[in-house]
Design a protein that fits this description.
mainly beta; Jelly Rolls; 4-stranded antiparallel β-sheet; 1 helix; globular
Amino acid sequence: MSGVPSLQTPVDNMLWRQTILKLFNLVGRGAGAMPYPVTLGASPFTFTNTNQYALDVVILGGTVSALTFQRSIQGRTTTVTLPTASGIVRLSQGDAMTLTYTGTPTLQAIPR
C-alpha cells in the first residue's frame, strides 16, 4: 500500500504527528495549533477566549496604559489589574483581558 509506512520504511515523526492530529480532528485545537495574530479594535479593547482550550496572549510593543484580566464564574466576575509592559497573559476558556492603549500593540494568541 503506497503512503503507509511499514516497519522497514523510515518514519517521519512530523508526518505521523500530522496524521494523528487529523485522525482525531485535533488540527487547530489547543496544543499543536499554530499561533495566530489578534486583530485589535478601538481602545479600550477586550479580547475574550471563546475557545475550548487555554491561550497565551503575547503583547508586544505599542503604548499600553492599562491592562486588566477578567474571570467570571457562576455570575461573579473578578478583575485584576496587570502591569502594562509587554508580556504574556494566559486566558482559560471564558477569560478576558482588556487593553487600553494609545500606540497599537501587537497581539499573538498561542493555543495551549
